Amino acid sequence: DIQMTQSPSSLPASLGDRVTITCRASQDIGNYLRWFQQKPGKSPRLMIYGATNLAAGVPSRFSGSRSGSDYSLTINSLESEDMAIYYCLQHNEYPYTFGAGTKLELK
Amino acid sequence: QVQLQQSGAELAKPGSSVKISCKASGYTFTSYYISWIKQTTGQGLEYIGYINTGSGGTNYNEKFKGKATLTVDKSSSTAFMQLSSLTPDDSAVYYCARVMTDWGQGVMVTVSS
């Protein structure tokens, strides 16, 4: 199975900060990488698909990028509603696999 | 709009089975695969497998073969997952998702004697 190594596991940040979360794939997954946001008691929400494409309704302060096997989610000008857990997902090969998650919280 | 409505929470005894449902609306049901995902605090998110809602064909994560059985009822636009021989390790929230884009609200399954 493809391993998705996500870092950091916890990310304290202040409102207005720019933050970056990274996933590294153990094998080539092309751009078959998605980012999800999950808030307590809610199901995951798609934020980024195809590594760099913003999902419908997602604020433009979110962006995705790729450098080789490293995939990043960046949030510019952090807002309180962005506090959540973020997961990456590779869907290039079955079984699909997720990163372990990054908990974004207020410093 | 796309909606996936899952069945309610389950409390089951070890060794028993549960069958949870995922009713789709707002799109052509047979045009998109439905995947199932397990979420626990300890293991995070795990991909169980998918069902081709048109043909009924399935693909399972090796880890869940023999544990999960995916089926579909096209007449009611509903996908099902049966979990068998339950153990406490099966206690989790289970989600269905349409091509990993739209997710159901999740079903909490608790296995306890």
Account of the protein in words:
The complex is a heterodimer of chains A (107) and B (113). Chain A has no helices and 11 strands. In chain A, 34% of the residues are buried. Chain A has 107 residues and is an all-beta fold. Chain B has strands at 3-6, 10-12, 18-25, 34-40, 44-51, 58-60, 68-73, 78-83, 92-98, 102-103, 107-111. In chain B, strands 2, 4, 5, 6, 9, 10 and 11 form a 7-stranded mixed beta sheet that branches. In chain B, strands 1-3-8-7 form a 4-stranded antiparallel beta sheet, with no helix packed on it. Chain B starts with a strand and ends with a strand. The model of chain B has no long low-confidence stretch (mean pLDDT 97). Chains A and B meet through strand 5 and strand 10 of A and strand 5 and strand 10 of B.
Summarize, please.
The complex is a heterodimer of chains A (107) and B (113). By secondary structure, chain A is mostly beta strands.
Question: Keywords, please?
Answer:
heterodimer; A: seven-stranded mixed sheet; four-stranded antiparallel sheet; B: 113 residues; mainly beta; seven-stranded mixed sheet; globular
Give helix % range of chain B.
under 10%
Largest sheet of chain A: 7 strands, mixed
Number of strands of chain B: 11
User: Ends of chain B: how far apart?
Assistant: 40 Å
Largest interface: A-B, 17 and 18 residues
Secondary-structure topology with pairs:
The complex is a heterodimer of chains A (107) and B (113).
Chain A: E1 4-7, E2 10-13, E3 19-25, E4 33-38, E5 45-49, E6 53-54, E7 62-67, E8 70-75, E9 84-90, E10 97-98, E11 102-106
Chain B: E1 3-6, E2 10-12, E3 18-25, E4 34-40, E5 44-51, E6 58-60, E7 68-73, E8 78-83, E9 92-98, E10 102-103, E11 107-111
Parallel strand pairs in B: 2-11
Antiparallel strand pairs in B: 1-3, 3-8, 4-5, 4-9, 5-6, 7-8, 9-10, 9-11
